[in-house]
C-alpha cells in the first residue's frame, strides 16, 4: 500500500475483489493501539490513520444497515449483509424471542447445509453449530424441528432472504452498541439504527428517537449530548458518558454519519459539523459518501449478470472462528465442534478489548429471548419497550484479533475470497500461536480495563484537572481579548477624527461627555506625565 493511498482506494480495491457494486452500506474498521475502534475515513491517508506499525489488521463489515435488506438489488450484497447479521446474532447484538431465534437459526442451517438428510444428519446435528452466545438442548431441538419440517426445498439464496426479512423486524436490528453511562451512573448501550437513535438499558429500550427528531449531536471530553425536538415544541437533551474521550468522539462521529446517511435526501446537503464551543477546542467532521436515497436510486440502475457467489462452508461450523463461551448442555464431544469455516466477513473480525466493545457474558441466555414488538418503532419514542428477559449485554470474542504468519495469512485470505472452508488441522496450526497464557493475560487485561486501579483513577483525575486548567486559561484569554477590543474602540472614539454617524451619536451622549472630561482626560494627562518622566530618566542616565 502506497504511503499516500487514501482510504477510498483501499475500499474500492476490496469491493472490486468482491465484485460488489452496492458498496455504500459497508466500511472498513480497525482498532488503534489504545484498543479503540475506528472507521477508516476514505478521504484521508490509510497509513496516517493507523497509529500502529504494519502489517495492519482491518475488518470489512456492514457500516450502514439497509432499511430493508430484502430489497437490495444484488444477491452478493444480500449475502454479505446476511453474514453480518448472522454474526450479530452470535455476539448477542441481535436479540429476539425463542421462536424467532429458532427460526433464524433454522434459516442459517438451511442456507449452510441444505435440506435435512437422515443419512447425513444424525440426532443432535444442530448442536454442532453455534448460532447464539449460549443456547440449550431444548432450543437446539426446536431449530432441528423447523429445519426438518418447514424449510425443505429452500435454496441458500431463499433461506438467506427469509433470514433477512425476519431479522429486519426485530427491535435490535442494525444495532452496533456503544457502552456508556447515564447521568445516574447506570450502564447503558447507545446505538444508531436505520430508523433512529436507540438507548438500551437493562432489558429495556428506554429511548427511541427518530432521525427527524434529532436536531444536534455534540461531545465534550467523555460527555455526549443529543438534542431532541419532538411534537408540541417539546425539546429534551439526553446526556451520556463514554468510557474515554476517544470513545465519545467515535460515538459522535458514528452519529453524524448515520444521521446524514439515513435522513438526508442527497449528499449535497451534507454539512461540516463542529463540536466546539467557548471552552473546548472541539472537533470538526464531515460525512463523505452518498446517502441512503441516492444509494437505492443507483442500485435500481444496476444492469449486469448476477456475479457468482462462493458461499462458505457446507460443514459443521460456528458462526465465528475459534470462540468458546463456556460449557453448553450438549452431548456432542468438544473435538467434534472444532471444525471451522472462514467466510469473507468473518475471517479476521475478532475485534475485542476496545472501548467500543463489551465484555463477554457469563450468564446464559437459555430460552430467555423476549418478544420485541416491531410496532414500537411507529409509536411514541417515550414508550419503554422490553427487548429481553435478561440485560442487553452483547458478547465479543475471547481471542484477540488474529495476526497470522505471512504465508498462512495469504493462504487464509485466499480461502476467504473463494469461500473455501478451513480444515481442523489448519485451524489448530493457526491457533498454535495463541497460547493459553496469552489468553489469560488478555482476559486479565480486559478485567483491568473494566476495573481500573488507583493508577488509572489518578491518571483520570489528572486528565480532568488539566482540562479544567485549560478551560480557565481559555476564559482568561477570551476576557483579555474582549478588554483589548473595548480599549481599541475607546481610543477610536476619543482620539480619532472620524465623523461617522455612529461615532457622532455616541460622542454626543451626556454619559460619554461626562466620562471623557471627568475620567478619560485626567487619565490621559497622568499617563502622558508618567511617560515624559520615564523618557527624561532614560535621557539623564
TrEMBL record:
InterPro entries: Band_41_domain, FA, FERM/acyl-CoA-bd_prot_sf, FERM_2, FERM_central, FERM_CS, FERM_domain, FERM_N. Residues 1-266 form the FERM domain. Keywords: Cell junction, Membrane, Phosphoprotein, Transmembrane, Transmembrane helix. GO terms for cellular component: adherens junction; cytoskeleton. The chain crosses the membrane at residues 472-494. One of its GO terms (biological process) is actomyosin structure organization. Residues 353-380 are annotated as: Disordered. It is found in: Cell junction, Adherens junction. May be involved in regulation of cell migration. May regulate cell-matrix interactions via its interaction with ITGB5 and modifying ITGB5 cytoplasmic tail interactions such as with FERMT2 and TLN1. May regulate ROCK1 kinase activity possibly involved in regulation of actin stress fiber formation. This is FERM domain-containing protein 5. It comes from Rynchops niger.
